[in-house]
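User: Structure please.
Assistant: Input sequence and predicted structure:
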Amino acid sequence: MENEKYFKSGPVWKSIFMMAVPSVVIILVMIFYNLADMFFIAMLEDTSQVAAISLVGPVFSVFAAVATMVGNGGCTTIANAFGAKNLEEGKIYASLSIWFTIICGILASALLLLAMNPMLEFLGTTTDAWESAKEYYFVLVAGAVFILLGNTLAMLVRAEGAVKESLIGNIMGTVINLVLDPVFILVFRMGAAGAALATVLGNVATTIYFFVYILHKANIITLDIRYAMKRPAALGRILAIGLPNGIGSVLSGFASTFSNQLLAGYGTSAIAAMAAAGKGTMILIFW
C-alpha cells in the first residue's frame, strides 16, 4: 500500500499531515467546483438559466449520495480487508463497488431520461426556466455513469493510501470544468447545457485517470468483474456502511426541491435568487 510506511514506521504527526492536507485541498477544490457553473451562467444575465441549475441541482445531489454511499462503504471495507492482510476480500469489495456504480449510472440515465418531463415538474420547474432546465437535465443525466464513477473512484483509491492520486483526480476534473465552463457557456453560447457538459467531461477525465491508475498501479482496487461475481452478497455490507453518509446528500436534495416548489409560485427570479444565496451558504458549510 502506497502510504503504509507512514503508519508503520513514520512519525505520527507526519502521517496525519500526509493524509489530512490533501483532504483539506479536496474540500477547497469542491468549493470552486460548486461555484463554477453558477458564476459563468450568471454572466449571461438570464435568470431562467440560473434557475435551471438550481432546479436540476437535486438530481446531482442524488448522484452524489449514491457515489458517497458506495465510495465510503467500499473504502472502509477495502481498508479493513487490507488491514487483515486479506487482499482477496479487498479485491471483492473493490470490484463490487465499481461495478455496482457502473450499473447504477446506466440505470439512472435510462430511467431518468424516460421520466424527464415528470421529473422536471416534480423539481418545481417554472415555464420560463423549462427549456433551460430540460437541456441541463438531459446532459447531466446522460453522463450519470461518469459523475458517479468519478466521485466513487476518488474515495476507493484512498483505501490503499493513494491520497495523492485521489487529490490529482479531483483537481483534474475541477480544472477541466473551470476551463470548459466559459468556453461552452460564454463562447459557444450553450447556456445551462454547456455548464452540464463541462461537468460531465470533467468527470469523464477523472474517471479515465482513475482507471489508468487502477490498471497500472493499484494493489487492491480492481476492475475485474470476476471478483464481484465471487461474493455478490458482500455488496450489502458496503451499502450498509456507506448509507449514513449518503442519506445526508439525499435529504439535502429533497430540501432543495421542496424549497424550489414553494418558490415557483413567486416566479423564476425567486428561484434564481435562492440559488445564488445557496452557493454563498455552501462556501460557509464547506469551510
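The mean pLDDT is 88.
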